[in-house]
Specification:
Blueprint (H helix, E strand, L loop, with lengths): L24 E13 L3 E8 L2 E8 L3 H8 L6 E10 L14 E12 L16 H6 L1 H4 L3 H23 L3 E2 L17 E3 L7 E3 L5 H9 L4 E9 L11 E10 L3 H17 L10 E4 H8 L13 E2 L10 H8 L3 E7 L7 H13 L6 E5 L4 E3 L5 H12 L6 E7 L1 H18 L10 E5 L4 E4 L4 E4 L26 E6 L2 E8 L4 H10 L4 H14 L7 E7 H9 L29 H6 L7
Parallel strand pairs: 3-5, 6-9, 11-17
Antiparallel strand pairs: 1-2, 1-4, 2-3, 4-5, 7-8, 9-10, 10-22, 12-13, 13-16, 14-15, 14-16, 17-20, 18-19, 20-21, 21-22
Helix pairs in contact: 4-6, 4-14, 7-11, 12-13
The protein binds aspartic acid.
The site of aspartic acid has 9 residues, from strand 21 and strand 22.
Length: about 600
């Protein structure tokens, strides 16, 4: 039978006691983390959120000893006792409470526990399925306790920061109308209006812009967003954005505020990030790193060697340059010593990333060596010189359309850096990617798509191109990147109805359709809309990176599996036929 807590109150957490507390009478409340039964002496580590403390129960308290022997892992206990210093040879320097122990004068078993399906005390290897089914036990383990605690610290630091910058925290509806972020909507049937549906917000985009029209000046929200996407490794159906919007914003103002916010988040792990962050136009990021999320913790930068091969005897490179393509490559430091097999593997990998082939060159004893003989020794020497490759290095080269070859090389760059251990773990490289194109051509539907979303403003200097050459228009859009991950993105918005209508038309939306989907917004734009802009940061991703986790599931209390299932609550699940009848929904099997 479980005993009662009664009026018993905790005096200290299980992580609090130190040598300076010796002699204090304490009450600890928590779980049995580990226990050792030495016959006439029982040791228990009692754990709560703050840590664990060693408790000793001795023979002199025979009834306590009996009770202690009934304990099992994860029983819930109250310990009443006095803090004592451990003898020097039994002190544990790895645990903050390791100098002391509590000698129990009373012990209450507040609740028993079944044997957990995995140990809480050790970070043993447990399948993700079991962890998610018993998430409440998984969450008790030290790693997730730390991650969830850090998430709290980061959230609090951000809240305090935004408050200090004059932001209002404002909630926007969960039951709403579709927002165009490019994913599939989750729909919620209306009972009151049969046949009609709410959509869950993919983001609060339209509402936050309306808040600017409403004179709220600066808005922030820790907003849950819902996107019905096929689950890739690092996506969740619902995720949290730190969503913000600023009236009278310029890109510089947004950068400044967001850099301050990220610096505040980093204080949670005691890291001081240098500001301002670097800035790089999208086109340059693609050319030099083959991606709009470059990881700048290491070099291996892609270089362009097109002009060197304009008249090369090597037909593949020469023709690529003649037809508007180019030759690009990067230097792999220390890889001149690669064996034949290692070099072949590199070529194979490049092909898997979509390259037609990969040429390599390196310095040899007295000469140079190049895999495509037709390039000739002279040609190879020249490109090695221009690339800056040293004696120990290997230069890899590919050809094709400029963006395409950079994208292949960008993937190879990452793979090589990982394999060669060139990525320092303790570096934080933050940067802005700017000047994204406004539109992408949608080949299948023969129309333009927004790269960001349809409310993103074109650069003022490109406005005249909007009608005739939309593909050349750059946007006032920006992403913030950390170590190769997109932390967030946003833009300065269109704030006049005419430009907004032109953009909808370019996206293939008839005036009628635009009115139907966003009529309320278009109307609001006509009532004195201030210039405004903002951004949304992915809170889950920030927490994962700052916790040193590679998956956002490790920083979300109750995540879904990659198969979109909540294994603990068993959702999604069938519902009562009566509920469906009320909604006038018939399910086809
Ligand atoms: N609503 C955008 C997104 O979810 C962010 C923004 O433009 O502020 O990506």
């Amino acid at each position: 039978m479980a005993e009662q807590l009664g009026q018993l109150a905790r005096t200290h957490t299980c992580g609090a006691l130190r040598a300076s507390d010796v002699g204090t009478d304490v009450v600890l409340l928590g779980w049995v983390h580990r226990m050792r039964d030495l016959g006439s002496l029982v040791f228990i580590d009692v754990r709560d959120r703050a840590g664990y403390t060693q408790v000793v129960i001795e023979e002199s308290h025979a009834d306590l000893l009996d009770r202690a022997k009934r304990l099992r892992s994860e029983f819930v206990v109250a310990v009443i006792g006095r803090v004592e210093l451990r003898s020097p040879d039994t002190q544990n320097a790895n645990v903050p409470t390791g100098q002391i122990e509590v000698r129990a004068t009373d012990l209450r078993i507040l609740n028993e526990a079944k044997t957990p399906p995995f140990t809480i005390a050790e970070d043993s290897n447990v399948s993700e399925e079991t962890r998610l089914k018993y998430r409440y036990l998984d969450l008790r383990r030290p790693r997730l306790q730390r991650n969830i605690g850090l998430r709290h610290d980061i959230t609090l630091a951000l809240r305090n920061y935004f408050n200090s910058q004059g932001f209002y925290e404002i909630e926007t509806p969960i039951l709403t109308k579709s927002t165009p972020e490019g994913a599939r909507d989750f729909l919620v049937p209306s009972r009151v209006h049969p046949g009609e549906f709410y959509a869950l917000p993919q983001s609060p985009q339209i509402f936050k812009q309306i808040l600017m029209i409403a004179g709220m000046d600066r808005y922030v929200q820790f907003a849950r967003c819902f996107r019905d996407e096929d689950q890739r490794a690092d996506r969740q159906l619902e995720f949290t954005q730190v969503d913000l919007e600023i009236s009278f914003a310029t890109p510089d103002l947004v950068y400044n505020i967001v850099e301050g916010a990220l610096a505040a988040a980093f204080t949670a792990i005691g890291v001081d990030v240098p500001r301002p962050f670097r800035r790089m136009p999208y086109a340059e990021a693609i050319a030099r790193y083959g991606t709009d999320k470059p990881d700048l913790r290491f070099g291996l930068e892609i270089q362009d060697f097109g002009p060197l091969f304009a008249e090369s005897p090597f037909g593949i490179f020469r023709e690529a340059v003649e037809h508007g393509g180019t030759v690009r490559g990067f230097v792999v430091p220390g890889a001149a010593k690669f064996s034949r097999r290692e070099v072949d593997e590199l070529v194979e990998q490049a092909k898997q990333f979509g390259a037609a082939g990969l040429v390599w060159a390196r310095h040899a004893a007295e000469s140079v060596q190049v895999s495509a003989k037709a390039i000739g020794e002279e040609g190879a020497r020249r490109v090695l010189d221009v690339s800056g490759a040293m004696r120990d290095d290997l230069l890899v080269l590919g050809s094709g359309a400029p963006d395409a070859i950079s994208k292949v090389l960008g993937q190879l760059r990452l793979a090589v850096a990982k394999k060669q251990n060139l990525i320092p773990e303790d570096r934080w490289e933050l940067l802005w990617i700017t000047d994204f194109p406004l539109f992408d051509w949608n080949l299948d539907e023969r129309r333009w798509d927004s790269v960001n979303h349809p409310f993103t403003a074109p650069r003022e200097e490109d406005l005249h191109l909007l009608a005739a050459e939309p593909g050349k228009v750059l946007a006032k859009a920006y992403d913030v990147i950390l170590n190769g991950w997109e932390l967030g993105g946003g833009s300065i918005r269109i704030h006049d109805r005419e430009t907004q209508a032109t953009v909808f038309r370019l996206l293939g939306m008839s005036d009628e359709e635009a009115r139907d989907r966003f009529g309320f917004f278009l109307e609001a734009l006509e009532y004195g809309t201030p210039p405004h802009g903002g951004l949304a940061l992915g809170l889950d991703r920030i927490c994962a990176l700052l916790s040193g986790e590679s998956s956002i599931r490790e920083v979300i209390a109750f995540p879904k599996t990659t198969n979109a299932v909540d294994l603990m609550a068993d959702a999604p699940s069938k519902v009562d036929p009566r509920q469906l009848r009320e909604l006038r929904i018939r399910v086809q099997s």
